């Protein structure tokens, strides 16, 4: 069981990659805060090597999804998909009181009508790419996770929130529906009836209720879920990398079919761990009463 921790992991790591805005219109008089990238990708080192953070950073909009932020996010996932050194990804916010509040409506109002479906399709592509990453993805939800922000969280493997966090697919208040996977992933998380209730009413719920209905795996009694996400990521680092990837495949694919076919998927995934060097290392380490040293081979 994860214990209560108070460490701040917000700036850990040696290698930090900042993905710049896709915007060439910045003026010389733009405030310094506006120059910060909407997204920061941080690869940690030493005992946290293998953990990657994606930190959303648009304080002026509570991390509302702009075109620049969306493209930065998509590019980050494209790079992580082929990053063999990445073992666990944590999605979090650098903005107090907000995980992500959905699409940037101010930007949306200036968007030509024909561009809106393209923008939403791009967010849908983002959530699909996030869900299909071969490594575990943990969402650390502090504050508001609304609309597209909750859809991003729903695409993660494990959701950890604070008890005071606020979550909801609130699109029907704007006379639209969730369009980046929310209607499907929320239904799979909480069931048909509860998903309909939350979407039809555009209701926001707190972390306590989200944990009760299975929307998040844990709601913590603390100011931030980030340290708990890190503790879970550290536990994952101790496991076999190949086994984790295949376990994720078995759960994801198997859960979309009936039990009989799901068992076949599990069998096929299990067969792929048998010839790995990591499995032999685990057996050897067990016999020698030491921690195994996995290489993902």
Short description:
The chain is an alpha/beta fold and 297 residues long. It contains 12 helices and 11 strands. Helix 2 runs parallel beside helix 4, helix 4 packs parallel to helix 5 and helix 10 runs antiparallel to helix 11.
Strand-pairing-aware structural class? alpha/beta
Mean pLDDT, all residues: 86
Strand content: 15-25%
Under CATH, the topology of the largest domain is which? 2-enoyl-CoA Hydratase, Chain A, domain 1
- The backbone outline, from C-alpha atoms, is globular
Number of E-state strands: 11
Pfam family, one: ECH_1
GO biological process, one term: fatty acid beta-oxidation
Family: Belongs to the enoyl-CoA hydratase/isomerase family.
GO molecular function: enoyl-CoA hydratase activity
What does this structure look like?
This protein folds into two domains: 15-237, 2-enoyl-CoA Hydratase, Chain A, domain 1; 241-287, Orthogonal Bundle (Lyase 2-enoyl-coa Hydratase, Chain  A, domain 2). Helices cover 41% and strands 15% of the residues. It has twelve helices and eleven strands. The chain has helices at 32-35, 67-80, 105-109, 116-131, 148-154, 182-190, 192-201, 207-212, 226-237, 241-254, 259-273, 277-287; strands at 15-19, 39-43, 51-56, 88-93, 98-100, 137-141, 144-146, 158-162, 166-168, 205-206, 218-220. The strands form two sheets. Strands 1-2-3-4-6-8-11 form a seven-stranded mixed sheet, sandwiched between helices. Helix 2 runs parallel beside helix 4, helix 4 packs parallel to helix 5 and helix 6 crosses helix 7 (192-201). It is globular. The two termini are 29 Å apart.
């Amino acid at each position: 069981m994860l214990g209560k921790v108070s460490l701040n992991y917000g700036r850990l790591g040696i290698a930090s990659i900042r993905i710049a805005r896709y915007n060439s219109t910045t003026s010389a008089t733009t405030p310094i805060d506006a120059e910060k990238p909407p997204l920061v990708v941080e690869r940690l080192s030493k005992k946290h090597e293998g953990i990657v953070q994606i930190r959303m950073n648009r304080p002026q909009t509570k991390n509302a999804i702009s075109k620049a932020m969306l493209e930065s996010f998509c590019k980050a996932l494209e790079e992580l998909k082929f990053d063999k050194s990445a073992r666990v990804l944590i999605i979090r916010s650098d903005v107090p009181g907000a995980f992500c509040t959905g699409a940037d409506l101010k930007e949306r109002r200036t968007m030509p009508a024909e561009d809106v479906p393209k923008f939403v399709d791009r967010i849908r592509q983002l959530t699909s790419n996030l869900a299909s990453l071969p490594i575990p993805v943990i969402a650390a939800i502090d504050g508001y996770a609304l609309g597209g922000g909750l859809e991003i969280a729903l695409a993660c493997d494990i959701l950890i929130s604070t008890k005071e966090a606020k979550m909801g697919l609130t699109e029907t208040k704007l006379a639209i529906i969730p369009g980046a996977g929310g209607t499907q992933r929320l239904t799979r998380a909480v069931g048909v009836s509860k998903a309909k209730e939350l979407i039809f009413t555009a209701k926001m719920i707190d972390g306590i209720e989200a944990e009760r209905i299975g929307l998040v795996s844990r709601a913590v009694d603390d100011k931030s879920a980030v340290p708990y996400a890190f503790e879970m990521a550290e536990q994952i680092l101790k496991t076999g990398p190949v086994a984790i990837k295949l376990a994720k495949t078995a759960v994801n694919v198997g859960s979309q079919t009936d039990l009989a076919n799901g068992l076949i998927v599990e069998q096929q995934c299990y067969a792929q761990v048998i010839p790995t060097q990591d499995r032999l290392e685990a057996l050897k380490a067990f016999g020698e009463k030491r921690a195994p040293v996995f290489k993902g081979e």
